[in-house]
Amino acid sequence: MIEDTRIMIPFDEALSRAISMVQPLESEAVAVSDACGRVVVEPVYAQIDAPRVDIAAMDGYAVRLDEARTDQALKVVGEAFAGTPFTAALGEGQAVRIFTGAHVPAGADCIVMQEYAQRSGDTVTFEKGFGPARHIRKRGGDFAAGALMIERGTRLSPAAMIALAGADKADAVVARQPRVAIIVTGDELVAPGSAAAIANRQPDSASYGVAALAERYGATIVQIFRAEDDLATLEEIATQALSLADCVIVIGGASVGERDFAKPMFAGAELELAFSKVAIKPGKPVWFGTAGGRCVLGLPGNPGSALVTARLFAAPLLTALQGGDAWAEIQTVPLPLEVPLEPGGSREIFVRARLGKDGLKPVANQESGAQAPLAQSSWLIRRAAHAPAQVAGAMVRAIPL
């Protein structure tokens, strides 16, 4: 392991280096019921037309348009429901009572909405005002058999699940979920719920946020290790974590103090670093490399920094492991500021903020160790180094946190 701790590189360069070292995991087929949140590694094509036939878009009466006049009664010869069609052809002077989703009978070319119909026994007449829409969804109007429905590398959102199932697919070929092990270092850390009873201890909070974020981006957490700052102990944990996981995330021990062992614990696994310091705030000590053929991401120990750097690095890296578009995970969207922003500093800044009705408002406490403001933080405002002051209403670039 060779490291020059003086080198601090820009965020985009750091992420690019990390992504270049990631190899996508193997694929597997999963049932459509288990596919949400997974990344497809093969494009999804439609197996059928949608709709499969012309269908009614409204409740009403299927008729021939040239016969649907206010001065002419049509004979109602049957009914058509979704899944239970009227099987005969529509004859001259006839109408079929039809409901949304039902097959349009042969011979009909218009659905007159029921609001314009006057039914009397087995006849129906129509009032003025219907049309010009014919209220028929044409066969293949949504998509045709063979159409590309979902591109390779797409994470299946709830909306994409509708497209997947609508394509008549019983399963999907997706990337295997990355197995993630988390190592939390620090003599002072104990499990939540026990800190109050022990002097000089505080609850480990960062690992819970990082684990939840990793799961949001498709990972399975195989184990969370919590250890004191002892190199021999940490070396054993590092070996175990590498044997269990595709990606190991280390929280804490990222600085250069006498008891910061985040990187040294992987020396026996021939840690190859992509970078060890990034010109961002918060999160300058974040680092990434590979060890024993596994990805290793090191996050700062402060909870605010840990969560922000996990969002900026773990999210795209986990997506890359699944064959997805890593850069899409940090794509910014323009949003207005609710309040002014002061000029930026010498590093690129990711400002924790909440979104109100008038725009983004940074949370009051931006310290790396702040925990309470994270509950209100839903966005990161991305600001370049030496960014000028900005007034309320100005547009900024933001990433969902």
UniProtKB/TrEMBL annotation:
Residue ranges of every copy of the MoaB/Mog domain listed in the record: 181-320
Example of a GO biological process term: Mo-molybdopterin cofactor biosynthetic process
Reaction it catalyzes: adenylyl-molybdopterin + molybdate = Mo-molybdopterin + AMP + H(+)
Alphabetically ordered keywords of this record: Magnesium, Metal-binding, Molybdenum, Molybdenum cofactor biosynthesis, Transferase
Protein role: Catalyzes the insertion of molybdate into adenylated molybdopterin with the concomitant release of AMP.
GO molecular function annotations of the record: metal ion binding; molybdopterin molybdotransferase activity
UniProt-recorded name of the protein: Molybdopterin molybdenumtransferase
Known cofactor(s): Mg(2+)
SMART domains: MoCF_biosynth (SM00852)
EC id: 2.10.1.1
Biological or metabolic pathway of the protein: Cofactor biosynthesis; molybdopterin biosynthesis
Gene source species: Qipengyuania citrea LAMA 915
Gene3D superfamilies, per the entry: MoaB/Mog-like domain, MoeA, C-terminal, domain IV, Molybdopterin biosynthesis moea protein, domain 2, Molybdopterin biosynthesis moea protein, domain 3
GO CC entries: cytosol
Protein family (similarity comment): Belongs to the MoeA family.
